[in-house]
């Protein structure tokens, strides 16, 4: 693959991660679905909404996440310092993350750490096939 194709793929995967975070915060489930592969391996057990490690069908995971996030008035997933390594039609992404979960101005929980994601190219488009959250800190009310 040439340098231009490599850069194009890197940019597409970077944008994919941003679209994923935006879709979560906007509660836009069709947009979230468009960022994901059909079968996922998710481990968000370090953060609410918790999801234990393991394989899950995409629509089942979106159902779980939509129910979990419904209890918050708002959330914000901030991603940065992306490290993206692509090899053919597969790749890995590491991004630092800060996630805020708000019930009200007085009840909130914030966590930080990093996401490790796997991505695959399906039918010419990049999709997230797995995410693991590695929590390194938290503040606020962890009971939310």
List keywords for this structure.
alpha+beta, 6 strands
How would you describe the overall organization of this protein?
- The chain is α+β, with helices and mostly antiparallel strands and 144 residues long.
- The protein is 28% helix and 51% strand.
- It has 3 helices and 6 strands; from the N terminus they run H-H-E-E-H-E-E-E-E.
- The protein has helices at 3-26, 29-33, 58-69, and strands spanning 36-43, 54-57, 74-87, 90-104, 107-122, 125-140.
- A 6-stranded mixed beta sheet has the order 2-1-6-5-4-3.
- The model has no long low-confidence stretch (mean pLDDT 91).
State the end-to-end distance: 47 Å
Number of helices: 3
- How large a portion of the residues is in β-strands, by DSSP E? over 45%
Low-confidence stretches: none
Helical residue percent band: 25-40%
Major sheet: arrangement of strands: 2-1-6-5-4-3
**Per the principal axes of the C-alpha atoms, what is the gross shape?**
globular
């Amino acid at each position: 693959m040439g340098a231009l194709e490599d850069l194009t793929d890197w940019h597409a995967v970077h944008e994919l991660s941003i679209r994923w975070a935006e879709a979560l915060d906007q509660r836009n489930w069709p947009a979230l679905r468009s960022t994901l592969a059909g079968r996922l391996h998710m481990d968000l057990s370090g953060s609410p909404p918790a999801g234990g490690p393991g394989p899950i069908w995409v629509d089942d995971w979106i159902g779980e996440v939509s129910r979990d996030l419904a209890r918050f008035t708002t959330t914000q997933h901030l991603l940065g310092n992306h490290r993206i390594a692509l090899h053919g039609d597969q790749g890995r992404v590491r991004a630092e993350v800060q996630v805020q979960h708000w019930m009200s101005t007085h009840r909130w929980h914030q966590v930080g750490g990093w996401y490790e994601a796997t991505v695959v190219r399906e039918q010419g488009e990049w999709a997230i096939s797995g995410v693991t959250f590695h929590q390194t800190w938290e503040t606020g009310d962890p009971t939310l």
